[in-house]
Design brief:
By secondary structure, this protein is α/β, with parallel strands linked by helices. The chain has 2 domains: 152 residues, D-Maltodextrin-Binding Protein, domain 2; 87 residues, Periplasmic binding protein-like II (D-Maltodextrin-Binding Protein, domain 2). The chain is 39% helix and 20% strand. The strands form 2 sheets. Strands 2-1-3-10-4-11 form a 6-stranded mixed β-sheet, with helices on both faces. The protein has a 5-stranded mixed β-sheet with strand order 7-6-8-5-9, with helices on both faces. Strand 1, helix 2 and strand 2 form a beta-alpha-beta unit. The longest helix has 16 residues. The two termini are 27 Å apart.
Length: 283
């Protein structure tokens, strides 16, 4: 089936609203398949697009500066029940992704002080869950700029995610993949992000248009990921083929169960104040 046939199946309304809307996302290799067609205008859309770090994307959604955002899973709780999730679109990983990597000076049992990229919330929460629940380690954490050399010179371990994690894998061989640790502990994928919106800001046309963007990204995945890797010094590590092996762009029953499990652990450890209910868009 060609791309045109796939897009016809998505039942897209190319102009979901006469009102100009906006969204925010965090640029990285994992999000690129979901937004590439929108950024390139290969998919016609009416949106104003903002790029920001994940915590600020959720803050922009919370304060009404954007209508929807590709937010980190942990930030969904900040909506206090007023946000809805776009169905069937998300980003999750299982084993071997090194999306979230803990670089260690010595052995894991020697960890007492951990430096965490200050821009990271979702994987910071995951790290706390893994260390406490899987290894019974109560570490001291410091939120710092993501410079691995400085981080490891002053701490026992350093957490990096995304591009910065992959860029340092070969130079710092003592590390663990905390998404893999989560999978081994829970038997579930780790959901990194999904589309969320203010409840009254979303309609069926928006959902269909973002689903079209996902279809476009899946169809052109090799090209999108390979181009991103070449432009960000990741071509020796990342390509379209291994992206398919380690990431999923869906949000089905297994991913929903993973979110619920993640939120329960985060609540139990005092990382979030409440266990959020998952509210999905329904026509």
């Amino acid at each position: 089936m060609n791309l045109d046939d796939l897009l016809l199946q998505s039942d897209i309304n190319p102009h979901p609203s006469s009102i100009v809307k906006s969204f925010c996302y965090t640029p990285c290799y994992a999000t690129s398949p979901l937004v590439s067609g929108l950024l390139s205008k290969e998919i016609n859309h009416p949106y104003k697009i903002y790029k920001n770090e994940s915590a600020l994307c959720s803050e922009m959604l919370k304060t009404g500066q954007v209508d929807f955002g590709l937010i980190s899973a942990i930030d969904y709780e900040a909506g206090k029940g007023s946000w809805i999730i776009m169905p069937n679109i998300g980003i999750s990983c299982r084993k071997g992704s090194f999306w979230a990597t803990l670089f260690i000076n010595k052995g894991i049992n020697s960890i007492k002080k951990v430096a965490v990229d200050r821009h990271v919330r979702n994987e910071y929460a995951l790290l706390q869950i893994i260390l406490q629940e899987r290894y019974e380690i109560e570490a001291d954490f410091s939120l710092v700029e993501p410079d691995i050399e400085t981080m490891l010179s002053e701490n026992d371990a350093a957490l990096l995610i995304g591009d910065k994690a992959l860029q340092n894998i070969k130079n710092y061989p003592t590390h663990i993949d905390i998404c893999e640790e989560w999978y081994d502990m829970s038997g579930l994928p780790f959901v990194t992000s999904f589309w969320a919106a203010q409840e009254m800001s979303l309609n069926a046309g928006d959902v269909a248009l973002l689903n079209q963007a996902k279809i476009h990204g899946e169809y052109h995945l090799d090209k999108i990921i390979n181009n991103y890797a070449e432009g960000n010094q990741l071509s020796k590590i990342l390509n379209g083929a291994n992206f398919k092996d380690i990431f999923s762009l869906g949000l089905q029953n297994e991913e929903k169960a993973a979110l619920q499990e993640f939120y329960q652990y985060a609540f139990y450890l005092g990382i979030i104040d409440n266990i959020p209910e998952l509210h999905f868009f329904e026509e």
